Request: fold
Amino acid sequence: MTPRRCALALMGVLALCFPPVSDAQKVYRISALVASDLFVPAFEGFKKKMTELGYVERRNVNYDFHNAKGHQDTLNKLAQKLAQDKPDLIVTSSTSVTIPVAKLTEGTNLPVIFVSASDPLRFVKSYASSGNNLTGISNSSLDLIEKRMELLKEFVPGIKRVIVLEVPSGTNYEISHRLIWEAGKKLGVDLTEVHAAGHEEIKSKISALITRKLGEAVFTPPDVLVTAAIEEIARQAIKEKLPLIGTNIDTIKKGALATYTADYFELGQQGAIMANKVLKGAKPADLPIEQPSRLNLVINLKTAKAIGLKVPKEILLRADEVIE
Reply:
């Protein structure tokens, strides 16, 4: 082979090994916002599944993650930042986060995937099609209110009066309030509703909000302003020897007695599969809103022991996770 032909052959090999810059793999920018620490597992599940799907951080995807830590003002400011940054995709977790993001991106083609929302119908047309730039996963938390109340009655069959701790300014207050009272009426339980302005007031007034004088158990709604104070709520409930029904796995790990819930980490993984479809060209409106792939019964036996409650064997046999 002549020197010229050798040079041409070498150039051809190099061209195959090192494609032009214009053909380089796209690096996606994904911005994420969660309402509080309780929703961080959803984003962790999202990232893990995205890696399995081929999206490697700092190679072909960069994440901009934000946590509002339960503060509404911070949440609104961060939502505005995400919309202004115009990433390739926005990921949210919780209804309270998704509402402002939906408003700020309304009428745009900026895709938004919510990986956990109690009330998706606040910002989408229907479960079949959002009709806009959003799609995602419902955490079914509102749908599980009656089932959680039934669970409380299984733990304490003769219970008559239950404390319901609510924040009227919370995103889900109206619908969760209605569903809780409907469940109480159906199950023959009297409810004592106590109010707080937010999680900071819950923390400062907890000894007055949760006491045996007000009820025989505590029921919390799916509201980030309530769950942001779950450690203080659980501590006071244990002090008063009151069963506390939480809203997700993290609330049980932090001292609540039990709950039915979706696994937020798994919800994030579901959301990643949807994100992959969107990044490959699918329109959010063409992807139906999904329900959790499974639900879990989670029990904290350490808390049960602390309040002197014997957990019925039949409940333990049904449990998907037991914390000891």
The longest helix spans residues 264-279.
